[in-house]
Amino acid sequence: MPNYGITPPQANDLKKVLSFLNCIDKEQQILKIDPGFQHQDINSREQNYCISALEWLDLIRLIASPSGSKYYQLTELGNRLIKADLTTRAHIIREILQEDPVFSEAIEFRRTDPALLRNILIEKILQPNSNWRSSRGEILSKHTAERRAGCVIAWCRHMGFIRKDKRTRRTPPPTTTTQKTPPRSFLGLPNDNTKQLEKIRTAIEQLSKIHHPREGFTVGEITQFCKETWPGWRYPPTTSTNVGSSVRRTLQHHCSDAKYGGEGTARTALGIKPGDDKDLFRWHKDQELWSIRKSE
Questions:
Q1: Measuring CA to CA, which residue among 73, 79, 96, 82 is closest to residue 1?
Q2: What is the pLDDT of residue 263?
Q3: Alpha-carbon distances, residue 250 vs 109, 244, 276, 283 (angstroms)
Q4: Best CA proximity match to 31, nearest among 10, 55, 9, 15
Q5: Segments in the chain forming alpha helices (H)
Q6: Structural element, H or E, at residue 110
Q7: Does residue 181 belong to any structural domain of this protein?
Q8: Residues 271, 245 within the same domain
Q9: Domains in the chain: how many in total?
Q10: What is the pTM of this model?
Q11: Residue at 175 is within a domain
């Protein structure tokens, strides 16, 4: 969850914000901002915005301010983030943003006309119970809320929550030959609807890293991870099958606890016994969660 003790982010370039994590002393896990500190070609004002945004994301925390310097310690979440691979990092950032009401509003209305979306966010920011407040703990002014709404939209676009306006996209130059873009893959798994079992296992493993020490996840959470990581995993609209139903079926068919995989009541039960080669997942019935079955 964001650190609401810090003023809301106003650095529009999230990539630039996260680049400051590369300046952290990995042994001490400290980011030192001494007088004259320079990162890339970022001016001091924008630099302050970026550092503040990292604090708001709860990735770093100010621990000392000796003689004009500022020392920031990596939080537990920040430490997890810098140790993660790029895909896991993206999921961690998405999780943080989704926990915030303003960003959640942007995601919910992501298909709304940009001008209308901006107004929706401004109204959300200015609500009396909003956590988006000034350093004095006061509700933001409308002018400040307008600028913060722009930052929200920019971050959502960077994270893929909101698609960029087609009018702002550059048209690629015409080519005489057809060039095929290689399919995106994660951990060697192709960006299509093949190798579903391996993808579901990978999804649960990665979600366990992101939400440590939690191990079990809903079908919806696993499905969302798969759709974001392998967007090419899809089916024709004419079929009744979708990613969610594929995930549920695969889990059921590789679990001795499930009614379809084990000795359950379903007529199509596969009779998988505990310890079988196909007994790969565990069904936590009371919580409706799925996890990877650990060998005894």
A1: 96
A2: 54
A3: 32, 10, 15, 12
A4: 55
A5: 14-19, 44-56, 76-83, 86-98, 101-108, 114-125, 142-158, 196-210, 219-229, 243-252
A6: none
A7: no
A8: yes
A9: 3
A10: 0.60
A11: no
- The answer to the question of residue 91 being in a domain is no
106 and 29 together in one domain: no
Q: What is the SS3 assignment for 103?
A: helix
Under 8 Å CB-to-CB from 168, ≥6 apart: which residues?
none
d(CA 194, CA 196): 5
Map tokens 């990613």 to a residue.
243
Domain range holding 61?
A: 14-84
- The CATH number for 72's domain is 1.10.10.10
Tokens of 272: 């998988």
Q: Give the model confidence (pLDDT) of 188-207 as tens digits.
A: 788 898 999 999 999 999 88
Structural domain includes residue 204 = yes
Q: Per residue of the chain (296 residues), what is the pLDDT tens digit?
A: 899 999 999 999 999 999 999 999 888 899 999 888 888 888 889 999 999 999 999 999 999 998 889 999 999 999 999 999 988 999 999 999 999 999 999 998 888 878 888 988 999 999 999 999 999 999 999 999 999 999 999 999 999 888 765 443 443 444 444 444 445 567 778 889 899 999 999 999 988 888 878 889 999 889 988 888 888 898 887 777 889 889 998 998 888 887 665 555 554 456 777 878 888 999 888 888 999 998 75
> Six-digit token pair at 283?
């069904």
pLDDT (tens digit per residue) in 42-55: 888 999 999 999 99
Q: Where on the phi/psi map is residue 68: left (φ > 0), alpha (ψ -120 to 50), or beta?
A: left
Of the candidates 230, 245, 219, the one whose C-alpha atom is nearest the C-alpha of residue 191 is: 230
